[in-house]
Amino acid sequence: MIKETASMFTRDGVRLDADIYRPDAEGTFPVLLMRQPYGKAIASTVVYAHPSWYASHGYITVIQDVRGRGTSAGEFKLFNHEIADGFDAVNWAAQLPGSSGEVGMYGFSYQGMTQLYAASAHPPALKTICPAMIGYDLYTDWAYQGGAFCWQDNLSWAIQLAAETARLRNDEKAYQALYAAYRNLPLSDTIPACPEILKNLAPDSFYHEWLNHPKPDEYWEKLSPKQYFQEVDLPILHIGGWFDTYLRGTLHLYKEMAYRSDFLQYLLIGPWAHLPWGRKVGAVDYGSAAASPIDKLQIRWFDQFLKGKDTGLLKELPVCLFEMGSNLWRSFESWPNNQISYFLSSSGLASSQDDAGKLVPHPPTPSPLEGEGEEEGENLKSQILSCEGGHRDGNRQDAHFAQNPTSEDIFVHDPWRPVPALGGHASFPPGSFERGAIDSRTDVLTYTSAPLTEDLHIAGDVSVEIYCTGDRLSFDLCAVLSEVQNNDKVYNFTQGYVRVEPNQETTPLKILLQSTCVRIAKGNQLRLSLSAACFPAYPVNPGTGSLPGETRLIESQIITLTVRSGGNFPSQILLPFCMKEKIC
Q: Is the pLDDT of residue 148 over 60?
């Protein structure tokens, strides 16, 4: 491996620096380009193999500092220069000595975003990209979820970038303060969402703009890569993680491209958080199969689309998902979209008794799926019913719901002791944890199914529809799905969140949960937990209707919420189930 450092100049004369790793061999080679803001020496080795490994497989590998970061010149402004600079960088990389003239890009998070921005400018040398863990629409996929500001993620990232800016300016006092704040987030300032340290030490941080644009307005439209990507068509390797905070963006881009692209769109999602990509996430070890296959897969991908080799990728099913629980990789022809429902039922004490809130299966009578015969349709019906706890008598179920009166579960949100975040995709540390203690709180409603008579395979998009009202102008609702094991341990596997604004229709209130792929084992139970906070993943809703950037700590109100189920209030989980799966 041969390493050198080289510079290029953008069209407006700004110097960008890059480390270049070359194969130790004669000839011409395709170029792999990563553009990132954290210092080129790191090269995203928190999740990828070192660039020298990629060079050893016959690629000139270029790791470039974006404008104003690392040793590159210019002023860094989040995402603002990445289209033009990305276009210039691809053209420069394609003309490096020894280059074949064809370029591919890889990287995750910000480095994934730079791929989308560069591709949107249509540089002719760029033949394929491998974006991992990205926001396609920055408002819905990155900064906000369900209208709620993703506070912990945005605040910690803003402090990290501000600290790097202070380091580059050799401002030791600011760096020390930001370093300390990153490890102990400032969550209790006068206006909690507007911490003094960022106002004083990073007045130009993106954080202030994001907080001050709480709706999907023109600001987000101009900043998001989605607006510029509509005419792009390339083979794309999409990479995500079930506990990654940006999985929404990965799937947003994949679904659009799978619908309109003429090229292969390959999706792989592991059981990972944003980083690292390993076998253990949170408190759960997913086994040796969960170790990242991404480096080897990317070499196969680039061999296919930059070197013209037949690597077999075009013959494989294009959706590869890690199924948590069985801890196996499963492959699909497309994104799964079958759906069944679990309905909420309660005695009115779901906040205080484990057996008071129930999830009751009420599967529809399925018709044969498109392309399947009657026998396969009957098999589908049989599997749905058996996975749902063995309720095979549809008339009996209808009678159950007809006789089941409306129930009300009332719980109180106290801003002094908000329900804490634990794992999931939106807080740190992420992943799956035993949450029995949280479910035992009286400000958390729990609804639990009967023990399953067969394994239940869940794969795809998850949502809940809840008939919920509050006695204040505004409130939040957090929904968590967990597996209750036969030893009474409770492990979360997906969650969602929504902020309900004043005068917003709330019946039913729909919450989109993180997409997932999991097997709930026979004998275990499915549980839905509802709360009015997930702190500090999202700011505590004050109940006043004011926005986070305007809410003083002292203004937060106690909120009483009512969840209705049964009768004319069919609160339910819309659950994607998986029938046909193959080992990848």
A: yes
